[in-house]
Model the fold of this input.
Amino acid sequence: MIEDLKNKGYEKVTLGVEPEETKNKEIYFKYGFNEHIKDSKEVYPDGTEISVEYYRKKL
Done:
């Protein structure tokens, strides 16, 4: 996916992760998603609210 985005001319990519997903965060940091953008609350259609941390990686 990252290579496809590069080939299409994108320079940055972002992702969101729940703060308590520590293993996923470790994996994302390992792959360069280490620029913290913001913390946010997201709401699913069923009304469930979650906290999300957003990170960016330069391609």
Summary: The radius of gyration is 13 Å. The mean pLDDT is 97.
